[in-house]
Specification:
heterodimer, A: six-stranded mixed sheet, 19 helices, 33% helix, globular, disordered N terminus, B: mainly alpha, 14 helices, 75% helix
Chain lengths: 515, 372
Amino acid sequence: MSPTGSHANANASANAQAPKSAAESLRPLALALRGVHKQFGTTIALNDVSLEVRAGTIHALLGENGAGKTTLMRVAFGLISPDRGTVEVAGRTESAGLTPTRALAAGVGMVHQHFSLVSAMTVAQNIALGGRGLFAPSKVDAQIRRIGERTGLVLDPHVMVSELSVSAQQRCEIVKALARDVRVLILDEPTAVLAPDEAQTLLRWLRAFVQESPEHAVVLITHKLRDALSVADDVTVLRRGARVASGAASTFTEDTLAEAMLGADARGTPVGYEVLPGVVTHADSGGAHHEVLSVDRISVADARGIERIHQVSFHVRAGEIVGLAAVEGSGQEQLLRAVAGLLPLRSGRLHAPADIGFVPEDRHRDALLLDASLTENLALRDAGTRRGRMDWLALARRTTKLLGSRDVRAASARVHARTLSGGNQQKFILARALEQAPPLLVVENPTRGLDFRATTAVHAALNEARNAGTAILLYSSDLDEVLSLSDRVLAMHNGRLREVPRDREAVGRAMLGVA
Amino acid sequence: MSDPSTSPEQSPRDMPTSAAPLAESFAQSFVRPLLRVGALLATTLTLLVALLVVTGHDPAVALRALVRGAFGSWYAITSATLVRAVPLAFTGLAVAVAFRAGLLNIGAEGQLLAGAAAAAGAAALVGPSAGAWAIPLVLVAGVLSGALWAGIAAVLRQRFGVLEVISTIMLNFVALYVVGWLVRGPLQEPSRIYPQSVALPDALHLPVLLPGTRLHLGVALAALLAVYLWWWMRGTAAGFRLRAVGLNAHAAATTGRIDVARVSLLAFLASGALAGLGGAVEYAGVTYALYENFSPGYGYTAIAVALLARLNPAGVLGTALLFGALQAGANAMQRDAGVPVALVNVVEAMLILLVIAGDRLSISNRTRRDRT
């Protein structure tokens, strides 16, 4: 046991939040963040946020995409140093120069959304990794078995991590933390990668963990209201980098939580976007136009074979933008790829045109040959079906024309895609997707990482395509972007789809699974 | 990034006229590699002189021997340098095709041996009375066998995710020992004294292009293939797909809707076929027999040949010639000036390091410029 473990918390009663029963308010704080402020460039990621995690409890940290949940917990784990504010672990201030090593020594461990395991090593090697001194395999094995017996997180120490399922890898991450005597366990969206029954098992285990010792506590980062309410003792809600609600879970309902997450401005015009000229409400767009895409009760599985989309039906007409609103991991990734013809259907029917423009979220990975010329990148668009010779002359001419007409700032069609700025790369990708006027365009997070001007240009291009009669299916993790661009909005939750009025509150509630 | 105001004036100039881009791509593919070979030659000489001085040899004597061995006579050029360049060109093309598709095929050596062994097997099958009509048969046997040998690694990669770097190296050893067994077993010459195959009948020898030299048809075949592959990679849709997969397999699949697995498999087979053809050509054009040390590591030197040519099939011709000359010259240097061949191997290795470091440097310079 580390010396901090038994340190009685003298400040506990002074720091206790809303007065509860005497016994509860006497509970020491396992982790406390006070007045944490963090700015990245001009963006305020955390605005004087405080968080009190009582020992022996599960604390759910809720918020929309980009609300600052992960950033706050990265501060607690020493991965990000805040501009202002302090971190206290079991009553001891750890703020000055907190590093993950020191956080671990103080008993704080974090399981990231993307695991940090070496897949070519065994479970035992991964757990020993980062420790000090000699690697004694038998000792580590014994430790893993001990933890397994004590907590029920059973792992074979000699299995390669690459052979573990995702849920077993997560278990391995947790055991790794427990092997370092972690008492405050932070989990970032742990259920996002799990199948529903796996998620239930994990949540039950978390409950057992905090009951095991009065020193234990869990911070659960999530955007699933149901998880938060079913398992957490306390809840803190962040919105745009600020704490907007905090208290015992029993004092919240799904409704009040959703309201806190979405904010009072939910009913007004989306903040940060002006309604662009040419956007008409969906009343004028329906009727006359034919259905370009019709999806009839399709189910789609991800790469692991887990069904992510269940019996989804919808349609997109020519000349309308249908926006998809969803929190991360709701199945939108699979839905867009299934529509674009890149993922097979498990069941159901899908009628889509042969020519579909697809603008994937990760442009460097999925859309560009960075070390090839723009002409070659244009040619990539239909490389799979092209036969015979390449007419580079015509392709170069088309590329040059496209650069001019779509205002892509590049020295010439010959420069490599890598030399373009992110905004111009995205303008080029969009221009390429639209060049042959495909009847359907599928767009995923089209303005991710772009500055304001590039964002405006991308929005304008999408609207122009829509007005020219293209059917557009758009997903953005930014709810306001979905609302400002779409004629109709479909909210996705846990692989199911529902059409909702174009209203921030209604959409927000639907994507969080609140009726 | 260009100043936006200049782009309107610039665009007409960028509009390719009918002749300009072809001339340009010709320059890019042939003239610039030649310049590179010139620079490489200068670097090679400098390194060699330095090494000769360090190891206490007289550079003047040694270099004279080297040049004489490589270019000193008509016979040296046609029968030593060019003939040695041929297997390097075939295997260099094999490596270039695979690397361009993003496949690290280190197995050109094994595929060359597999090709040579199959060629020897085909020659044994048709028998000593066969006429020149059997020559294509011998070569095709080499092509198929090389492709098959590479196909093993391709299947291992696609079915079980075995890294082709590992599997192709391992298959090199397998091929080496299979050849060792063949020349002591089924393919051994009838007297059963020497561990080598029966000599190829004269009728099956590849035609000699210039009487009085060892310059065989394989030289022309290698040159034709190099030019064809150069054109195929940039001029055809299939060639573009291969390059796209090598540049970014994710984008090739997502944006290009290219069947990446199929393209990889075909590229692997083509690579093996080229190396296998190299083995068959060496067998039917130079050695006329299969024996244990059939290849002095052509398939390994090929990696250097391809990398120095920046994986450009046309450039492979130039670098294969450079390495052919170096090896022909090295033999003469050992014979006439007592300088060990190993010294030239050291120079070859240093050249590769220099070129790779140079490429890295220019890439990092470029990215630095982009950032500013």
